[in-house]
Amino acid sequence: MTKNFPLTSLLLLVLALVSAAGELAVAKPAMGINFGGPSDWNTELPFANVFMESRRWISQREGASWGKGPELDLDSQGWVRRLESGCYAETPLCTIEGGHYPSGIYTVRFRGKGKLTFMNAQVVDEKPGEIKIQVDSQHGAFWVQIRETDPADYIRNIQVFLPGYEAQPSVPWNPAFLARWKGVDTVRYMDLQHTNGSKLEKWSDRPQLGDATFSEKGVPIELLCDLANRLNANPWFCVPHRADDEFVRNMAQTIKKRLNPNLKVYVEYSNEVWNGQFEQCRYAQEKGKALLPDEQPWVCGWAWTSHRSREIFQIFEEVFGGTDRLVRVLASQAANSYVSEQLLKYSDVSEVTDALAIAPYFMNCIPKEYAEEFIRGGVSGALDHLEKQALPQSIEWMKKQKELADQYGVELVCYEAGQHLVGLWGANDREELNAICLEANASERMGKLYDAYFQAWEDVGGGLMCHFSSTGNWSKWGSWGLFRWADEKPADSPKYQAFERSLKRWSKAEK
Fold first, then answer.
1. Spatial CA neighbour of 359 closest among 394, 327, 409
2. How many CA atoms lie less than 13 Å away from 424 in the CB half-sphere?
3. What are the two backbone dihedrals, phi and then psi, of residue 81, each rounded to the nearest 5 degrees?
């Protein structure tokens, strides 16, 4: 005879299950960051060796127009093997205005035989394989020029160290950069990998440690793992949209080998594959035709994103021997939960997805026809719009996407986040408009809006939030950076101060 289960015990069991489910459903917020991509104009100065961000060699011919030299003979890693008579190769470093990079003695080291010269820098000491140059950042960029090189032992492995850092060449990162971002939970590498429009397909195409510059293909995975290890932060990798299975498998194996075992790995297929302005979107739409031949291009693109994400997740799971260290990310459009649902539904990809990622910017993108009205409103009007319209709209996006994430049993995270105040389609050519956007971003009131924004994310039950971006000069194209310059003080950035407040609060809550 079956015994009756006591009613009080049944009620207690139900309450316990509901409580447990509630704890699982509410994610703990955490603060992450997006770094800028490698380029000679990157104001973050992440590397101790600034040549890592140099521009591709520019070929010059004496007496000819600028940049009109012959095609250069480069080796597989971008070093100049030989020069034609009367020709030279050069590249600019630290094209950063306003003196916002260190002045002083830079140490230049290299291998091979030839002659290096410099523009906007003065040689103060020279010996085989090493030259010391005096640089004054108030004069703008300085240039490295190869005037002669021996084809049998050509100049290569050029390093240009920031003042004072030449003694530790084994540490590739600028210590000030490491110190600034120590404590963030996660570092997203989308721009450091040059993800948008990436041409990488085969593993042999990948950026490698000996490359002349990382501005062409992005930063090698080995260095990105090293950065995560030094920061003790979880890395967020974006798999190039053209990468084949061998590339993905080797990428996963390299990460597993190089990354500290206590760190989790966020894995995302490319970046904003839903966004029509990117080449990866058009690629996905074309590939998706084989999956859904009778559908609209954008639907085909969503299908391919889900399909390829599932394949990538499986490869990473095989390499890592499970999913304990993986956070498998499916990224969508913040303003359109319909897109998110289609992505999660196709091929039942939600079954192998850990997080739905969005970028819920609080924004005012001003088209040309509204430029005059925006200018009349001034800084106060711009901030009023963000506070009374853009921020509430962003919060509604968060809520809708959180409901959908809960429905499919995945966490809600932000791959990018922050303000989005910028002119569009010619409006950003108006100096008055740009001045308002820049002043608004530097204001104390913007810092308070950031506080409210971060609190709203926490209240909604969001998990990781990766701000876009860390450091980058503000311009007519947007004011993305928490800092404009590497030498900017935290006390001078209300946006960063708000970021740091939530970082500390969320980190403390995690402990």
1. 394
2. 9
3. -85, -35
Give every strand in the sheet of 142-149, ordered side by side.
58-61, 87-93, 142-149, 114-119
Residues 400, 358: contact at Cβ < 8 Å? no
* pLDDT-based confidence at residue 1 (cuts at 50, 70, 90): very low
Q: What is the mean pLDDT of the chain?
A: 94
Per the rule left: phi > 0, alpha: psi between -120 and 50, beta: everything else, 114 is: left
Quickly state the pLDDT bin for 363 (edges 50, 70, 90): very high
Q: Which two tokens stand for residue 61?
A: 């011919």
Shortest CA distance to 495 belongs to which of 507, 510, 479?
Answer: 479
In sequence order, the 6+-apart residues with CB closer than 8 A to the CB of 359 are 272, 334, 414, 415, 416, 417, 468
How far from the centroid of its chain's Cα atoms is residue 464's Cα? Answer: 15
Q: What backbone phi and psi angles, to 5 degrees, belong to 209?
A: -60, -30
Extents of the domains making up the chain: 27-45+174-510, 50-161
pTM: predicted TM-score of the whole model, two decimal places = 0.94
Measured distance CA(403)–CA(460) in Å, rounded:
10
Q: What is the mean pLDDT of residues 392-402?
A: 98
CATH 2.60.40 fits 50-161, yes or no: yes
Of 259, 219, 171, residue with least CA distance to 36: 219
Residue by residue, DSSP assigns 112-148 as SSEEEEEESSEEEEEETTEEEEEE-GGG--EEEEEEE
Q: Phi first, then psi: give them for residue 74, nearest 5 degrees.
A: -110, 150
Look at residue 508 in the predicted model and tell me its pLDDT: 84
Write a three-state SS string for 342-362: HHHHHHHHHHHCCEEEECCCE
CATH number of 27-45+174-510: 3.20.20.80
Integer CA distances (angstroms), 312 to 186, 241, 307, 320, in order: 20, 11, 9, 12
